[in-house]
Amino acid sequence: MTESLENRSADDEVRITARITGVVQGVGFRYWTARKADELMLRGTVRNNRDGSVQLVAEGPVSDAEALVSWLRSARAPGRIENMEFDVSDATGEFDEFRIVG
Q1: Which of 19, 48, 49, 99 is catalytic?
Q2: Catalytic site residues (predicted)?
Q3: Given this structure, which CATH class describes domain 5-92?
């Protein structure tokens, strides 16, 4: 993680770029992650990678980004996450909604 979410104020707009590994393909992971991101009004994408991991890019306020990360780390997230590496940077504003790609 290049920067921690804790170093930001709750209203700052951030971008989380994550690579998630484990049992995360073929279990509804992208669908439920997109639904949770929509619920939190985050914008971005989620996609399967060829290596079996999932790529997540989410932008929005720090408080909502933290809620998504907490959900992903919880037992409520689908599949079984073994590792989640993510970077935090300033939001770019390139997304209008959250969608599943690929």
Answers
A1: 48
A2: 30, 48
A3: alpha beta
